[in-house]
């Protein structure tokens, strides 16, 4: 019986490694992956969709949307997933950046207070401490803009402090270490 030598020779001559993949760094604009921030990248990686397209995607958690814009502007990242609030500031500073898609259809930030809080309108924030995730968060931009539109001076009339992520901001609010919270509301829906 003749042994087919030709197919074996063909297999030995064929490369056994996959073709090279294009490496891309993608920034998520929060340090934790949630349903709203970054999970789409984790799903695409797990299902092999990036590999099927010849992409080796590194998902890098960043501190906030402001940093996401900065890293795209400096070309450190090709793509990030920020909220759109910092875009207006970046554009005013001469940064040539475009948003071509957003997963968010509504504003993503709000000022939150406890139900029993004496703060009932934005002008009640005068002299109060507002917590934000971090100082690169769009929550900073929102708190300052809302203070200004309510007649307050955002530089002198409010105090912005880092409240952190996860359960920590709620704990600080409940323990009255902060009076209000300027935070993403996407993860709470």
Write out key terms for the chains shown.
alpha/beta, D-Maltodextrin-Binding Protein, domain 2, 2 domains, 4-stranded mixed beta sheet, 3-stranded parallel beta sheet, 30% helix, disordered N terminus
Task: Describe the structure in brief.
The protein is α/β, with parallel strands linked by helices and 189 residues long.
Radius of gyration: 23 Å
Count, helices = 7
Strand order of the largest sheet: 4-7-5-6
Number of strands: 7
Gross morphology is: elongated
Structural class: alpha/beta
Name the CATH architecture of the largest domain: 3-Layer(aba) Sandwich
CATH class of the largest domain: Alpha Beta
Can you tell me the number of structural domains? Answer: 2
Q: Into which percentage range does the β-strand content fall?
A: 15-25%
Mean pLDDT: 80
CATH topology of the largest domain: D-Maltodextrin-Binding Protein, domain 2
What is the share of helical residues? 25-40%
Q: Report on the biggest sheet.
A: 4 strands, mixed
Q: Give the topology string: H per helix, E per strand.
A: HEHHEHEHEEHEHE
Low-confidence stretches: 1-16
The CATH superfamily title of the largest domain: Periplasmic binding protein-like II
Distance between the termini: 70 Å
């Amino acid at each position: 019986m003749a042994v087919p030598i030709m197919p074996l020779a063909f297999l030995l001559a064929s490369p056994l490694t996959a073709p090279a993949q294009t490496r891309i760094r993608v920034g998520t604009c929060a340090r934790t992956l949630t349903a709203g921030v970054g999970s789409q990248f984790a799903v695409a990686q797990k299902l092999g969709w990036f590999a099927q397209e010849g992409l080796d995607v590194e998902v890098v958690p960043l501190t906030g949307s402001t940093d996401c814009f900065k890293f795209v502007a400096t070309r450190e990242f090709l793509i990030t997933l920020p909220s759109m609030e910092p875009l207006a500031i970046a554009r005013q500073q001469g940064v040539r950046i475009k948003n071509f898609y957003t997963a968010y259809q509504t504003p993503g930030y709000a000022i939150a207070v406890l139900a029993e809080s004496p703060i009932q309108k934005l002008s009640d924030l005068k002299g109060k401490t507002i917590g934000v995730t971090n100082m690169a968060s769009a929550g900073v931009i929102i708190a300052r803009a809302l203070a200004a539109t309510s007649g307050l001076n955002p530089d002198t009339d409010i105090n912005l402090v880092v409240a952190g992520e996860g359960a920590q901001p709620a704990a600080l609010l409940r323990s009255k270490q902060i009076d209000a919270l300027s935070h993403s509301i996407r993860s709470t829906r």
